[in-house]
Amino acid sequence: MGTARIDEISVAFLADLESAGADAEAVEKVRIKYAGRRSGLLQDLTAALRELPKEEKRDYGLALNELKTLINAKLAEVKDRAPTATVTTGSSSVDVTLPGMQVVRGAQHPVHIVRRRIEEIFLRMGYDVEAGPEVEDDWHNFEALNIPPDHPARDDQDTFYLPGEYLLRTHTSPVQARVMESRKPPIRIIVPGRVYRRDSDLRHSPMFHQIEGLLVDEGITVGHLKATLETFLHALFSDDVEVRLRPGYFPFTEPSAEVDISCIFCDQKGCGVCSGSGWIEILGAGMVDPRVFEAVGVDSEIYTGFAFGLGLDRIAMLVYGIPDLRQLFAGDQRLTRQFA
Amino acid sequence: MIFDSEWLTEHLAGAPDLDTLAKGLTDCGCLVEVREPGDGAEKWDVEVTTNRPDAMNHRGLAREAALATGATLLPLEIEFEESDEDAAELAAVEIADDAACSRYVARVIRGVTVGESPEWMKRRLLNCGVRPINVVVDATNYVLLELGQPLHAFDLERVRGRKIVVRPAVAGEKLTTLDGEERELDGSMLMIADGEGVVALAGIMGGADSEIGESTTDVLLESAHFDALSVRRTARRLGMHTEASHRFERGTDPEMAAVACDRAAALIAELAGGRVCRGRIDVYARPFEAPQMELSIAALSAFTGLEIEAERAIEIFEGLGFAHERAGDVVRVTVPPWRIDIERVPDLYEEVIRHVGYDAVPSELPVLPTNPGQRNPNWELIDRARDAAVSAGLVEVMTWSFIDPETDELVATQPLCPGQSLPLDNPLAQTQAVMRRSLLPGLLAAAKTNFNQGQRTLALFEQGRVFSLVDQQPREWERIGLLVADEAGGREERFVRLKGIIDDLVTRIGLPGVSWKRGGSPWLDPGAGAVLQSANGTTIGFAGALSRELAERWDLRHEVAVAELDLERATKPPLSKFRPLHRHPPVVVDVTVEHPADLSYAELEGTVSDLASEWVEDLSLVVRYRDETALAGVVRTTLRLIYRHADRSLTQDEVNEAHERLRRGLVERLGVALA
Q1: Residue B665's closest chain A neighbor by CA?
Q2: Contact A108 B386 (CB under 8 A)
Q3: Please, where in chain A does CATH 3.30.930.10 lie?
Q4: Which of residues 153-192 of A touch B (CB under 8 A)?
């Protein structure tokens, strides 16, 4: 045993290959004899390496590698020269009715799709996107927004409480207060985020998502609010939708408005989605109550502003026709996949 | 609140048809949500906002309807005769807490026959969802629905000492209310007592002992003004909510107390055949002072963005019952006692805008500096992480922010567990009692749901916040959780798939150079788990095959690999710099080595890159094969090297020579065999 054996095999290989010529079958036999995975001579030589004394291992290894390179290179050369198979036509043509190979793609949750669409619209209008904590204090969630303790409006926003005066925010509005506390007007922001209310049925989930808007500057009017909402809702749905503002009530805006769009499903003829009214309630809005400005240190003599908020889950349900809010949070990938 | 359409129009002269009336109300902010046929009239479900208790009765809503449709609100006419008997000699009233009760009006009606109410009254009550009881009680409920003033009728015989005292309860006092419940009272609650003890919860519900029954002949009628906050606190403490407390909590009209008392007395005298005793007992401890305000029409127009005529504004105030006086641009108004919501000038703006209508306001976009909008930087990075997950083929789920306490305890053993548990004081369910400290429980529940739906191959992620207490302060962190399950692959395939996703993700959020250290936590299979550390050694996540115990706990049918990463340290990745695109052709060469299993890939790759010629521009793993037939633990690894020179073509010989040097070096350095 030793490098002599390697040399012998090297010579034999070249001879065998020569005699095989261009016959593909014969070349394959040569390949199996020398480089076959199970019983090729190279395998034997490699196995023998383990039994050699240490001092011989190095030379043997190098020689063996040379042989391998040679064999592989020569076999590859012969293979390259072989004519390639011709493409057959006729009876073996592609069955074009076979299903296409499935693309494995990821998918965003519908609530996030809607959120990002809305963010895009407002970013184009020069609004910044802000975020705030989900665990809030009473001041930012309620008091700064003109909802003092024992205010009846707290009934409508059943709250989860946490140890030590904290709570889970019941709306994204506390971020309004936080931004106004820390920044001077003009302020132009939207705030998407997760919110919580202690309520659970077909139309209510203890956890849901909102997006909030706030604009504060000198000389902001009700007409500005109206035009902004119309522009936004046209961009989100279509230029054809009609936007209607009805007087409403929120403790942190004065005056307040409930905003409806003409039903996008029935052309206002009346359907299940709009309960036959032809209108779909879509968001709440109003002019910032001066009490809110005073609570957060904005001069209400100089500045006015407007705010609005809408439920992202509600919009997603509306746009995609999802009947049950809680299905959004069940973790079933079949839901998400539908909206990729 | 439900209204009876006939009752509503009864207060109006020149009322339009019901469609016009409903539209008028909706337009001025009293949304007529549902109209359905009732007994003898339509039943209207009208959404009256919390701040407008004055419109939570037929007359109040009729006032809005009149102004909205051009009809006229008819004056309230109450006619009855008084007997010679002086009410003040039959009963006495004392207010011991005038902060909580500013006025208490009472009347005495004697000789009533307590029977059923007439049909017309029962019909209206039923249309409004109120169950008729007897003529006296029905009359008080009727007046509540008509005028918004809650009333209470006592059987005068059962008012001990014929005396009413309005006072806070004494701790430990008890009262059995009309609903049969025994209530325990405390010093914060306002009571109505008689000469001996408590007979009613002020503004909420009467007591059973002084209830009007068939044997009642003499009635003491209460019509009071209680403080909104006081009633609200008591009702909340006792967990009660009644028609009366609903009104008082939102605020009632102190002046209406007397009018409503007369109206109810007149109805009782007419329908139950009693005699109304002479005079009202009226303790008016703190009389109402009407606020006055000045409104500039020019300021109102500027605020609205619509030129509003002073005449139109005045017409609106007139219709809403405000006294008014104009001096040029300024209108001075006096707020009527039922409008407890009007406190400041912007409240007046709202009244005008409500009735002018938003439709009349011209739309005009505001003009502001044209700076482009910016995403909050963290928000932007979080979306980058989400995008990385989506482009890696993962499907996003959203799961609850709260989990069950038992699962939460298990989270404490995770490497990223941020601090103490954050429990909810008032959870909806025990399974949602603690804020999540990890995204994995939600993802595992989602995996189970999907496996149960017949899915075998899964790739899920959730991006969201986790919460915990740190030094008694609640804190929250942005995280991303990943989960993959693949029927075809083994543990190692799942692991490397997850690792590939994470390596791409961390690069996209500016955390390159993450190192993978064997280990993890009891959450991971000890042989297939790793902790991730950022370049500066901070733990930013963990990843690996889910441990068997946890897979059993979640009852998962297939094996999964999971990971959770902290996104708080994400930063904007540096801008990529251009690298020249070499024109000369590459030479691709593979090298396959056979080595013991304890030689890690990292060591092998490190050695190869150490030994490789400077021409090697890329090195990658082609395939790794564990040879089960050979000696135990032999692994065959094929690496691919790309040789290229920046300025010229390499010859085959040059590459062969360089490659050969590498091969020889590997044998020498690692003692591996070349295959």
Answers
A1: A62
A2: yes
A3: 110-337
A4: 153, 155-156, 160-164, 166, 168, 186, 188
